[in-house]
Design goal:
Layout lengths: L20 E6 L1 H12 L3 E4 L8 H13 L11 E7 L3 E5 L4 E3 L10 E5 L2 H18 L3 E7 L9 H18 L5 E3 L2 H8 L15 H15 L2 H17 L9 H21 L3
Parallel strand pairs: 1-2, 1-3, 3-7, 7-8
Antiparallel strand pairs: 4-5, 4-6
């Protein structure tokens, strides 16, 4: 007997390889997921200019990375960009008429809040994807909607915002190298219990984020990636071990051995 509904996710036709170069941009959920990929030794850059909640701000991050020549990918090599959308609400600085990514605690009277339409959200996403592809054609994309609810919109308003983002993603997916991952559905349909939320009852708990990471791994990781992670697990545990006496010769020898194992493993799997 089943006591929950499992979100069915078809395995991706393309796969993420060990130590792959990755870019995570989006809401604080992107921070949470990106951290787990970094811990798994993917060469992941996570929200380099801070959290970006809406599609326009995600595009701004991509544009700035290009302007500053800091894009983490390399030409003619595979990589993966993950865009995590939080809301379709944006703030316009009245003085310039432009969308700002961070109000920087300036007075609310200086800004006008607006809601992006489905077409506008899709357009910003398509621009971000095409800009990356223009120089890095082998990069693949994962689009997902943050499961974090926005109480300040009201719960109905939060649902309308998420629905706009979901429909925009459907319009933006126009190739086999752009995939949707159902983070939002996993939390709302599969983990529909407040024990999977933090104390504010809005943000997913660490356990819930770990589970979403696991489902993403099952969907996108290659057999080589799983082999790497199996070999990396004991090394990672050794490196993070908290000894009783960190100055002892025994611990120094233990740590040096773990670092040598890490170096050898990375040399085996990294292309460059």
């Amino acid at each position: 007997m089943e006591f929950r509904t499992i979100v069915n996710i078809e395995p991706s036709l393309w796969k993420i390889e060990p130590c792959e170069r990755m870019l995570f941009v989006g809401s604080c959920f992107a921070d949470n997921m990106g951290k787990r990929f970094q811990e798994a030794r993917f060469r992941a850059v996570v929200n380099p200019y801070g959290v970006m909640y809406n599609p326009a701000s995600i595009l701004h991050t991509v544009e700035r990375l290009f302007e500053e020549n800091k894009m983490p990918f390399e030409p003619n090599k595979k990589g993966t960009a993950v865009f995590t959308l939080g809301t379709n609400h944006v703030y316009i600085l009245k003085e310039t008429g432009k969308i700002v990514d961070n109000c920087q605690k300036r007075p609310q009277r200086l800004f006008e809040e607006r809601e992006l339409s489905i077409d506008q959200c899709a357009h910003y996403l398509e621009q971000a994807i095409e800009l990356i592809r223009s120089r890095f054609p082998l990069v693949r994309f994962i689009l997902t909607v943050s499961p974090i609810r926005y109480r300040k919109y009201g719960y109905h308003g939060s649902q309308l915002s998420k629905a706009t983002l979901l429909l925009a993603i459907e319009k933006a997916i126009n190739s086999t190298n752009v995939s949707y991952f159902p983070s939002y559905e996993i939390i709302n349909d599969e983990l529909r219990d407040y024990r999977f939320y933090k104390e504010d009852m809005l943000h997913p708990s660490d356990q819930a984020v770990d589970y979403i990471y696991q489902r993403m791994a099952e969907t996108f990781f290659s057999p080589s990636t799983f082999s790497f992670l199996k070999a990396w697990k004991p090394i990672r545990e050794a490196l993070s071990h908290q000894p009783f006496n960190p100055e002892s010769e025994e611990y120094r020898s233990f740590l040096a051995k773990a670092k040598e194992q890490e170096k050898a493993l990375l040399q085996q799997y990294k292309e460059d």
